[in-house]
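Sequence and structure are no longer studied apart. As an example, we show below a sequence and the tokens encoding its fold:
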Amino acid sequence: MKPDRETVRAALDIARRAPSVHNTQPWRWGVADHSVHLFADRSRQLAVIDHDGRELAISCGAALHHARIAFRALGWRPTVHRLPNPADRDHLAAIELAPLSRIDRHVLSLVEASATRRTDRRPFLPATLSLPLLDQLMGAVRAEQVAITPLLDPARHRETMVALAHADSVERANPMYQAEIAEWSGARIGAVRGVPARNIPAATRFRRGMPGRGFGFGELASPPIDDGALLCVLATPTDAALDWLRVGEALSAFVLAAARAGLATCPLSQVTEKPLVRDVIRLSALDNAGQPQIVVRVGWPVTAEFPGAAAPRRPLDDILADWPTERPGRS
């Protein structure tokens, strides 16, 4: 027994909601008779900040997790084979599907949360997360075989903030980086990629203590408050392509669990873009245990315009192909 094509399309339509670096959406899907296959779309890899493809793989991992929960919500159990073809580095996952006897209400709530989840680049309110709520978020990440360290200690938080600010400063001094940012930000109405100006906070002299990437011109009103977000570091024991994919799945699990609880989130991928910054965070935040892969800001959102406008998504037909008749991994 196999799902019909409309069920597969419905699941992959939900997977399109996954977060990705600069909203590049660097994935394509191949649909076979009894399986669905995830491929990297290298035409959307960021050449300057992501020359090794780490952030592309993390983005694709987030789409993979979104697809997993979508299939479960539609009554199908996904069995995932990660990196199934050693001869093809772009073939990131194969999903086999079998009928489910019942649908988990928790999965349905995560799919519902995916419809309103946004990357929120504004400062968050200075209100702490309760320990039970933090435990839920950490459990969602650990279920994906990824470690998570919340930076509750002020000194570790401060050192990580300084490291991220250093990464941003070094990158902004690179003209090639500036050109890449310009290409993938400030998208106007009708664009189906990149970070729209409406999702970038407007410049203000009041934004202090706020880690993030300088995307340039923004239109999103931002309150004059210091950022009260908690920083969480997602890490893996090793640093291979499989780790990157799993981190993406864990990131998806984290942001959906947060959205379900009414929290705002913002991934910070600069942690891996400069070796010095990564070393500092590994030593200061992780006590030299594990490889930091991404930092996530999480906290209670400002009340105005939450969750905010959705970033554009590629049309579903642009990322689907019949496989193996067609090659979905390249544009």
Residues 54-73 form the longest helix (20 residues). Residues 131-299 form a domain with the NADH Oxidase fold (CATH 3.40.109.10).
